[in-house]
Design brief:
Elements: H1 4-29, E1 34-40, H2 47-66, E2 75-81, H3 86-99, E3 104-107, H4 111-124, E4 127-130, E5 145-147, H5 152-165, E6 170-176, H6 179-194, E7 198-205, H7 213-221, E8 226-230, H8 234-246, E9 253-255, H9 262-268, E10 276-279, H10 287-300, H11 306-326, H12 332-341, E11 343-344, E12 352-354, E13 360-361, E14 366-370, E15 383-388
Parallel strand pairs: 1-2, 1-3, 3-4, 4-5, 6-7, 6-8, 8-9, 9-10
Antiparallel strand pairs: 10-14, 11-12, 12-13, 14-15
Helix pairs in contact: 2-11, 3-4, 5-6, 8-9, 11-12
Length: 391
């Protein structure tokens, strides 16, 4: 016969084990939070748009959780700095996957970081979903790689078409030595040459470069009809525009989206007036996009690169929609299949989706022109839309 105290202890232990098992089962079925990763360029050449993207994601997160989470479960974003390069992106990826046990990652900001991490994510079966990486090679990075960002393959064709339609026949280019900028330069040059144009001079520069006068002088001496800029960082883009005018280049300037960000325009000043670019831009007729901009400005007191802000915002809501369906932040195959099936209407467009390579379809670019300095405002972001990009 057991001693009464022993019997009581056994009863208590037994109850604790039963209770613990019950709690464990409940925990397995109903997680305390859904956890997904975020990799953005919070520092480095892409920090202006990396921080905007991260803040837009935080804005979406707050809205989702204030509305009750995902089927009642809060969403958590675990953020790491990918610093706009492959090596630091891999470090951030390993931290998220090995330490934090994250299986779904929203990011990265920059194409070089995305291309560096994508092979690891594909091998590990980790979903990598970018709102801003645009290099054409990302399209073939794997079955778990998605993006809402429009590929630079499309940008290159449309910018080449724009140059030709504007009567440009000879072109000089200057580009930063990164995957993004080189992808833009290559795509624009190839299309321009297919149409019959000639690239008469090309210069490349390292990210740390601050003085571009020697390179710009060489480009000017080639007597091009136009200058094309492809930059990774806004500060360098603005400096190139300003210094090009300072050395006496007075011809037309074309660029990609980084070069028309608020920091780039602040550095360039009046020198940017008249610059043209093919970019993705928020449609003023889509109320959701305008509401997101208004809420972002109210919270952070600024806006830059509004389309990419909206793209980051949408990516969180798309992720939440797929978690609502899968009810599991570790089941990446189900999450991947959800992304392939989703059709979304949000800040950056209506009824867009993903093709069999994870490429976004249903979104388009426009042609913009930078306004004179006196006409630039927070509302117009310093430019006016001229019309759809020439497809």
């Amino acid at each position: 016969m057991k001693h009464p105290i022993v019997a009581i202890l056994l009863l208590v232990v037994s109850s604790m084990l039963i209770f613990g098992a019950a709690v464990g089962c409940e925990s397995d079925d109903e997680p305390e939070t859904y956890r997904i990763g975020v990799m953005e360029a919070l520092t480095g050449p892409g920090e202006t748009y990396g921080n905007v993207s991260n803040r837009a994601k935080q804005l979406a997160l707050e809205e989702i959780n204030e509305a009750g989470g995902i089927n009642g479960t809060p969403l958590e974003l675990v953020v790491e700095d990918s610093k706009c390069n492959a090596q630091d992106a891999i470090t951030a990826y390993n931290k998220l996957t090995d330490v934090d046990d994250i299986k779904i990652i929203l990011g990265t900001s920059c194409s070089g970081a995305m291309l560096g991490v994508a092979p690891l994510a594909e091998e590990d079966g980790v979903v990598l979903f970018s709102s801003s990486a645009t290099n054409p090679d990302i399209a073939d990075a794997g079955d778990f790689i998605f993006r809402t960002a429009i590929s630079d393959e499309k940008l290159g064709i449309e910018t080449g078409n724009l140059l030709w339609a504007d009567g440009i026949r000879t072109l000089a280019t200057i580009s930063e030595s990164t995957d993004y900028a080189e992808g833009v330069r290559r795509g624009v040059s190839e299309r321009f040459e297919v149409l019959g144009g000639q690239v008469v001079a090309s210069e490349r520069y390292q990210t740390e470069t601050l003085d571009f006068r020697t390179q710009l002088t060489l480009l000017r001496e080639s007597n091009p009809d136009a200058l094309m800029i492809a930059a990774q960082g806004e500060a360098s883009a603005g400096s190139i525009i300003k210094q090009a005018r300072e050395i006496g280049y007075d011809g037309p300037i074309y660029s990609e989206v980084v070069s028309i960000g608020s920091t780039a325009l602040e550095v360039a000043g009046e020198a940017a007036t008249g610059l043209k670019a093919v970019i993705a831009d928020l449609d003023p007729g889509i109320a959701k996009g305008q509401s997101v901009l208004q809420n972002f400005r109210a919270k952070y007191d600024y806006v830059t690169l509004p389309w990419y802000l909206g793209s980051a915002y949408d990516s969180v809501y798309i992720a939440a929609e797929c978690l609502k369906e899968t009810e599991d932040d570790q089941d990446t195959e189900a999450f991947r299949d959800c992304l392939y099936d989703v059709t979304w209407s949000g800040a950056i467009g209506e009824n867009y989706s993903f093709d069999d390579r994870g490429e976004v379809v249903g979104l388009s670019n426009v042609v913009i022109e930078i306004l004179p300095l006196a006409e630039r405002t927070e509302q117009n972001q310093g430019y006016r839309v001229l019309g759809p990009a020439p497809a």
